[in-house]
Each structure stands twice: as C-alpha cells, then as structure tokens.
C-alpha cells in the first residue's frame, strides 16, 4: 500500500468518527447505557468479520490471544464508550470532542508511571498546554452547569488511555481484538447496570437502528480503515491526521443543527488541538515516534 493511500484511509476514518456527535443528537431518547449496548451489538460482529478477514478465519483465536492485557483493555473501554456517549448527551459536541483529544497525553503520563516509558521534553510541554486547555473547559462547564459532561468526557479519554496502556503492556500489534472484547464487556455491563439505574435497553426502533449504525458503520468501519491505513504511516504523523475527527465533529452539528459552543470551549479546545499538533510535529522533526 502506498503512503498516500494510507493517509486517505486514516483521514476517512476520522471523518466517520466525527459523525458520532451528530448521530447522538438525532436519538429520540435512549440513555447512554442503551446506546452503548446496541452500538456494541453491531460493533462486535462487524469487527469479528474484519479480524477473520485479516487472520484467515482465526478471529476467535486472535481475540483469545490478547490474554489478560486484552481483558483489562476491554474493561477500560466500558468507561471510554459510556463516557463518550454520555458527555455528548449532556454537553456540547465541541466540548466533548475537544476533551477526548486529551487521551494521548493521559496515555503518555500513564505509560510513564506504569510502564516506565520515556516521555520527551516536547511532550511534557504539550501536556502542560493540554492541562491549561482542560482547566479552561472544565471551569466553563462548571459555570454553565455542564460539569458532569466535562468529567464524563475526561473519563472517556482516561478509559482510552488505559486501553492503550493495556495494549502496550502486552506488546500487541493489533488493537482490534481488544476492542471486540470491549464491545462484549460493554454489552454485559449494560445488561446488568442499566436496570439498576432505572434505564431500559428496549428503546425505540429508531434509536436501536441508529445506535447499531454507529457501531457497524462509524466505529467498526472507521477502525478498520484506520488499522489498515496506519500500517504505512509513521506513528508521529497519526495524531495530525486523526485530529480531523476533533475538528469536524463541531462543524457537523453546527451545519445541520445550529449547535454552537462558548468562547471558553473553543479557547480551551484550541489549546488542546495545538498541544496535539505540537507534540506530533516535534516527533516528526526528531524522526522518532511520538511518546504519546
């Protein structure tokens, strides 16, 4: 595969993922647990087909081979999936996706603490920039009564960071089988927790179909495109290409629904995006993979 083709696939993945906010805004009334349950119900078989295609029919063996690191990573995805949906439901899409962008920096800190991974000086500068951006956005959320949405978005980012650390600790080259486990664990958790919280999984047919479309089309297809495309792209360049998701998500809800965000959200978000770009560009200049 050529480099240009890989770039196109990774960017297309970001475009697909950027549609989550618009999709969630079009739900009729499903709660977060119901959404992640039905989304995972479509995500798991779709990704199993992808893993089977890549492994010559050994999908189940690949999933089982993830070991305890895969189990931990899959459990972390419960928080990532649930926090992502809930944050979009209770705060602006811009606010949520900008905070999601903190995941690489949380990953860098966790990798330093838990795995002893070296963090470059430029990445520490980027982490400081991101922390200021997060502070601005969380303070804004507190003033606007959306603190729980901000915290849920940060919880989602932390869940993705834990997922990434679990994969690194197991030296896994493919994240997709662990995502399959994450989908299975999310469905099990939703089936038990939703009734205890007074939330039903049997929502309207519209919400079920839309949630399943999020799983099979936006998440699974995007992950397949990203996995294939990223194989020919240096690690330091991937965050730059993936930022497409963060930049486009607020645009879709503004174009189709007229949803805007506060000045504080965009100021903090701009700092987060700048931190991601700074970290990626510094990694490219050094000719080494970015620490985050």
Automatic annotation (TrEMBL):
Entry keywords, A to Z: Membrane, Transmembrane, Transmembrane helix
Family annotation (InterPro entries): EamA_dom, EmrE-like
Residue span, EamA domain: 5-138
Pfam families: EamA
Transmembrane segment boundaries: 7-24, 30-51, 63-88, 94-115, 122-138, 150-167, 179-196, 208-226, 238-257, 263-281
Keyword Lipid biosynthesis: no
Name of the featured protein: DMT family transporter
Record organism: Albidovulum sediminis
């Amino acid at each position: 595969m050529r480099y240009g083709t890989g770039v196109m696939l990774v960017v297309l993945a970001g475009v697909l993922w950027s549609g989550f906010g618009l999709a969630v805004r079009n739900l009729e009334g499903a709660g977060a647990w119901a959404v992640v349950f039905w989304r995972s119900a479509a995500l798991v078989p779709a990704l199993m087909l992808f893993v089977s295609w890549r492994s010559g029919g050994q999908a189940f063996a690949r999933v089982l081979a993830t070991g305890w690191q895969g189990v931990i990573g899959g459990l972390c995805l419960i928080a990532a999936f649930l926090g992502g949906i809930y944050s979009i439901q209770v705060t602006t899409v811009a606010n949520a996706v900008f905070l999601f962008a903190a995941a690489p920096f949380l990953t860098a800190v966790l990798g330093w603490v838990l795995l002893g991974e070296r963090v470059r000086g430029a990445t520490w500068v980027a982490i400081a920039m991101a922390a200021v951006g997060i502070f601005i956005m969380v303070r804004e959320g507190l003033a606007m009564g959306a603190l729980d949405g901000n915290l849920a978005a940060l919880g989602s980012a932390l869940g993705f960071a834990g997922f990434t650390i679990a994969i690194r600790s197991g030296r896994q080259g493919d994240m997709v089988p662990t995502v399959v486990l994450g989908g299975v664990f999310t469905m099990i958790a939703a089936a038990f927790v939703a009734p205890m919280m007074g939330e039903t999984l049997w929502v309207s047919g519209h919400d079920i179909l839309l949630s399943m479309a999020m799983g099979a089309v936006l998440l699974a297809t995007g992950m397949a495109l990203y996995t294939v495309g990223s194989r020919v792209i240096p690690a330091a360049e991937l965050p730059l290409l993936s930022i497409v998701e963060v930049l486009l998500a607020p645009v879709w809800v503004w174009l189709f629904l007229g949803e805007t965000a506060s000045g504080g959200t965009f100021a903090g978000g701009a700092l987060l995006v700048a931190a991601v770009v700074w970290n990626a560009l510094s990694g490219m200049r050094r000719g080494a993979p970015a620490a985050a």
